[in-house]
Amino acid sequence: xxxxxxxxxxxxxxxxxxxxxxxxxxxxxxxxxxxxxxxxxxxxxxxxxxxxxxxxxxxxxxxxxxxxxxxxxxxxxxxxxxxxxxxxxxxxxxxxxxxxxxxxxxxxxxxxxxxxxxxxxxxxxxxxxxxxxxxxxxxxxxxxxxxxxxxxxxxxxxxxxxxxxxxxxxxxxxxxxxxxxxxxxxxxxxxxx
Length: 193
Ligand SMILES: Nc1ncnc2c1ncn2[C@@H]1O[C@H](COP(=O)(O)OP(=O)(O)OP(=O)(O)O)[C@@H](O)[C@H]1O
Ligand SMILES: Cc1cn([C@H]2C[C@H](O)[C@@H](COP(=O)(O)O)O2)c(=O)[nH]c1=O
Hints:
CATH topology: Rossmann fold
GO molecular function, one term: dTMP kinase activity
Number of strands: 5
Largest sheet: 5 strands, parallel
EC number: 2.7.4.9
Radius of gyration: 16 Å
Bound molecules: adenosine-5'-triphosphate, the ligand Cc1cn([C@H]2C[C@H](O)[C@@H](COP(=O)(O)O)O2)c(=O)[nH]c1=O
Number of helices: 8
GO biological process, one term: dTDP biosynthetic process
Binding site for ATP: 9-16
CATH superfamily: P-loop containing nucleotide triphosphate hydrolases
Strand order of the largest sheet: 2-3-1-4-5
Helix content: 40-55%
Domain Thymidylate kinase-like: 7-182
C-alpha cells in the first residue's frame, strides 16, 4: 500500500519550499524509514504535452495529468517507500480542472484507481499574496490570473470541507511558522505508523 501525504494549494502557496524543508527534517528524525519526496507532474514527456495543450481543455488536461500520475505511481512502487511526500496529487486535478468547468465527479472517476492520500496539507493563501511571491519564479507558461486562482482556491476549500484527511494550514504566515506547523502534523502522523 502506498502511503501518500500530499501538499496542495494554489500556485505560489509554498508547496515546494515547505515540502523540501519538512522532508529534510523528517529524514533526520525518522532515519530508519524510507521517506520519498516527489512532485507532479512527474514525466517530462507528459508535462511537455500539457504545456502544448495550452492549459485550456479540461478534458485533455484531466487525462494527461492522470496518465502522468499512473506512470509516476508505478515508479514509486518500485522504490518501496514507507511514506511519500507528494508536491501536488489528485486534489490538484479536482481543484484546477474543475475550475475550468469540468464535472468534479468525472475527474474523481478518472482518478479512482489511484490510492487516496492518507493526509493532505492544504497551504491556503490569498491569490494576491501567492502571485506576489511567484512573479519572479514562474516556471510554467500558463495564465496565473487572480480570478482563476480564486476559483481554484475555493475548490480546494470545498474539498477540505468534504474530506476529513485534508488539513488547512495558513500559508500566509512566515516560512518558519508554516514549516513548523506542517512538520508537527506529519510528525504526529508518522508516529502512528
Ligand atoms: N511562508 C512563506 N513566506 C514567504 N515566502 C514564502 C513562503 N513560502 C514560500 N515562499 C516563497 O514563495 C515562492 C513560491 O514558493 P514555492 O515555489 O514553494 O510555491 P509553490 O506552491 O510550489 O508554487 P508553484 O505551485 O507555482 O510551483 C518562493 O520564492 C518561496 O521561497
Ligand atoms: C498535478 C496537477 C497540476 N496542475 C497544475 C497546477 C499548476 O498550475 C501546474 C504545476 O505547476 P507547479 O509549479 O509544478 O506546481 O499544473 C493541474 O492543473 N492539475 C494537476 O493534476
